[in-house]
Amino acid sequence: MEITLNGERFELEEPLSVTALLARLDIDPRRVAVEHNQDIIKRHRFPEVVVGDGDTIEIVNFVGGG
Amino acid sequence: MTDTPFVVAGRTFTSRLIVGTGKYSSFPVMAQAHEASGADMVTVAVRRVNISDRSRESLLDYIDTSRMFILPNTAGCYTADEAIRTARLGREAGLSEWVKLEVIGDERTLFPDNEALIEATRVLVKEGFVVLPYTNDDPIACRKLQDAGAAAVMPAGAPIGSGLGIQNANNIRIIREFIRVPLIVDAGVGTASDASLAMELGADGVLMNTAIAGAEHPVAMAEAMRHAVIAGRLAYLAGRIPKKMYASASSPVEGMVGR
Question: Is B54's pLDDT higher than 80?
Fold first, then answer.
């Protein structure tokens, strides 16, 4: 299956929770915000929200800015 | 001389200087500059995580969040919708309701699109955000932003990153008269005297990034800015003398030797 992750195609073997996806990407869940098909996912819902085929995921964090 | 504390939306800050986190040569230099600036609020941008390269250090490793309040921005957004979406993401990433709202109207000048800015302010205030909009030095736009529920207004002194200093001092003074919420001069500062001038005109705070990060010695410039903001504020409170066209002797005119 394939998802769109931060604008790029990304292959997954099977549907994953947001928590599992972040772990696989080596991303600290405490420092990011996640959008699933344009809906913001509250952090406490990361374990229950499942990312499936064709989904669009945006993962953002803070970077330097003015 | 005692000053009233710098309060925005009920939150008290010890410093009237707000600094950015962009454009530094390295995170350690940024951290040192932040320390030297004395600021206790820093701005950050919200961007996609780099998925392919996870080796890069995190900005947050170099910000002491126990001391520094983090203000996410919506820099780079060109529509109200884009800015609202970015503000919501910033809230989730930082778990605070505060946003430095930017809706840019032109790429070359980075001037704000005030119409979209006011619209986005209205929407975000309804959602419970503390909105600090970056706007231009237009007193009417600032008043409309206040009416839309902005917690402060942040007019530019000059274009972002230009270092030109306060271009329309009179407008900043008029904005101070027009609005009740805090006035923070955001953008355009080039050196310490620009920050002092902003404060002398009655600004409650100054926000800057490039002036410090782009200086030859950012840590020294951060310290200069700390002093400049304090000096400007004191001068404002002290009440400057009126400007006059001709001289007025400081020493007595009587008692001159040999007259």
Answer: no
